[in-house]
Amino acid sequence: MTHFEPLTPTLGARVTGVDLGDVTTREAGAPLRAALVRHKVLVFPDQSLTPAAHRAFAAALGEPTPAHPVVPGLDADHPEIYVLDAGDGGKAPVWHTDVTFMARPPLGSVLRAVTLPPTGGDTCWTDLEAAYLSLSAPVRALADGLTALHDGRAYFEDYLRDRLGGEGSTWEGRRVRSLEPVEHPVVRVHPESGRRGLFVNPGFTTRLLGVTEGESRALLDVFFAAIGRPEFTVRHRWRAGDVVVWDNRSTAHYAVDDYGDQRRVMHRITLRGDVPVGV
Fold first, then answer.
1. Whose CB among 13, 73, 203, 207 lies 3.0–4.6 Å from 79's, allowing a Cys bridge?
2. What family name appears in the similarity comment (predicted)?
3. Domains of the chain, CATH where assigned
4. Cβ count within 10 A of residue 268
């Protein structure tokens, strides 16, 4: 029997009593998809997924996307798997929500530990809905009406130009040849729960629109400080066999870079999302 052990009152659950290798249909995945909306982060210990089984489980939760808008997948047989290899730039020690620099960011992510360092390499998640509610009522009202610019060029433009010759992946039916910034509401209404959450992150959100540059910097500092509050976070210490699924619409995450030159390799599959909708 599947058991959900909450990690905090609003964020995270440890899930036991389920073999993800058996979760291969939307019907089988439906209870976990519902739990994902409720808990936002699901931790599955002691799993034994191959790349093919990883893909099959992800497809039971939603529609897998290509590995990344720019970076190619694991191989020709597994184009959905994004390899996060610390030795090849696969580090992300900043709060971010996956791929918000595209018009239609992923619904969620399914991350599997492949090679872990002997110590360190934890991942933290933060509750963007709790961060929103922590703001004072006047600031929440202001945030409700704001729009932000999200830009992935600082992280992926050089890779697209220098390593791929300007030919990225096919994302939402379009070949990615440039990374133009996109606009998203600062406060996103979750399409399944209806709850509001901050939808900005220090990794990809560069500016607020319709305000001065100084106002943008000051307001983003307020929002980013709320996102980073420890009481809204969970921290996972990876073990072999761990799989973690998170809701990209209501969380941000941070890959702690505290393992030096030790090897850390993770495989990630993202699920097709929708265009963020504001208040």
1. 73
2. Belongs to the TfdA dioxygenase family.
3. 3-271 (3.60.130.10)
4. 21
| 3-class SS of residue 194 | coil
Distance CA 97, CA 186 (A): 13
With CA atoms as reference, report the closest residue to 40 among 140, 190, 237: 190
Torsion of CA 19, 25, 31, 36, to 10 degrees: 80
pLDDT tens digits, 235-273: 999 999 999 999 999 999 999 999 999 999 999 999 999
Instruction: Answer for the pair 126, 243: CB distance below 8 angstroms, yes or no.
Output: no
- For the chain, helix (H) and strand (E) counts, in that order, are 6, 17
Q: What is the pLDDT of residue 248?
A: 98
Other beta carbons within 10 angstroms of residue 53's beta carbon come to 18
Contact call for residues 64 and 272 (beta carbons, < 8 A): yes
Q: CA 224, 228, 234, 240 torsion: positive or negative? A: positive
For β-strands 147-150 and 182-185, DSSP reports them as: antiparallel
Q: What is the DSSP letter of 100?
A: T
From 60, 44, 64, 52, select the one nearest 113 (Cα to Cα): 44
Chain centroid offset of residue 257 CA: 17
Q: Which residues are catalytic?
A: 96, 98, 253, 268
Q: How confident is the model at residue 186 (pLDDT cuts 50, 70, 90)?
A: very high
